[in-house]
Amino acid sequence: MEFVGITVLLYDEKVNSVIHGFTPAGRANHYMPSLKADSILKVDRFEVAMCSSMYKITDHPFLIRFISLTIIDEVITGAPEINLQ
């Protein structure tokens, strides 16, 4: 098995939707410390692409790719209420 990258689910609070996020293996080590289970993150400076039906894991038509300019910050206060259903 070959490690190809990290897949995350991102919640867009403005449209109440879940978006598929991906960072390739080459950048995984850079973002790994910021990606904590059950945390709420703010993601800036990313690339948006159409989501291939072959790899589609959400109903959202787009995919977010982390690029070298992507910034990930944990939201400590003022985080949205997320319905886990």
Automatic annotation (TrEMBL):
Superkingdom field: Eukaryota
Entry protein name: DUF223 domain-containing protein
Species for this entry: Brassica oleracea var. oleracea
